[in-house]
Amino acid sequence: MSALAPLQLRRHEDRRVRQGHTWIYSNEIDTDATPLKGFQAGDQALLQGASGRPLGVALVNPHSLICARLIHRDGTEAVGAALIEARLAAALRLRERLFSQPFYRLAYGDSDGLPGLVVDRFGEHLVVQVGTAGMERLLPEVIAALDMLLQPAGILLRNDTAVRTLEQLPVYTRVAHGEIPEFLELEEHGARFRVSAQEGQKTGWFFDHRPGRARVASLAAGCRVLDVFSYVGAWGVEAAVAGATDVCCIDSSGPALALAAQNAALNGVEGRMRFIEGQAGAEIQRLATAGERFDIVVLDPPAFIKRRKDQKTGEHAYHKLNREAMAVLADEAILVSASCSMHLSESALLEIMQLAAAQAGRTLQVLEFLGQGPDHPVQAAIPETRYLKTIVARVMSV
User: Residue 239: inside a domain, yes or no?
Assistant: First the structure.
């Protein structure tokens, strides 16, 4: 096997990597010693400190701000099938310890030592997303390892995310193995769901909010629940199954709400659920004007802050949404406010909620801070792997 070309860091730029982080930014590279233009997207390189000391094998993309991602610290040769298989096997062992049913995120990128790779498991079907050029180059090894470990009935490549455009990768969706039905099925907290892996958001389902949905279900008996940005009804259906008397789902997508209605019927709770297609803010205001008040309101919006430059406008959007929700909360109601924006801290989200409550003449009593489920483990040295924040609070009149 030929030696890997070196990729050398500038002086004093190796501390973060030595402490466990795996991302290398283009301005950290000594481009005089090892020009980035000498690499093709997806190449592997031997990452070195300024002294020439090897730091491990990295996947390189000279077109990206994160120009390299460390995948193996102990080796000096290109990684391949053996490492991919070992990392996926380790990820599978963890999920099998955590969950009694095969519905979870099987691989979560850097946290599982597989930078840029996401694999969601829906029983005997898998949905794969690749977000880095290096992992795209290793995709045949990924598919082979998944087939060996799980013998799935089908593997879908859902490679249509925006991050691929930033990596200058082609956007596509295709079946890589076996067959993928129109709808995949899963179970969570005693509820059953059908999702569209080929047409829905992300991989078709958001496994990361499992802890939040469990908490809402535990509080839902006898309550009126408003599920904003409901998608296919995960929060709302589980609340209804847990005994909520009236659940209202709001989403801008007609097809998503149609699936939410099917999921309600699948669980026998369609008589206690209603579905509103429209923009969240306008529909919340319409409900408030109609005098509707809810005991639990769930706000699970898309990421309003996708890049640092979106910080100000994104924080304003989160504040506006939480402010609008105050108008439909009954006294002593529960507000569940979530953010999947990596660039919004938990403390910033709490500050936004507190300001919204104060402006509405309400007080906020925080009950719980939640995050992503354990199938999205946080790599302690990579704070970016902790992206999901969910705050559960009681809202009371002053």
Answer: yes
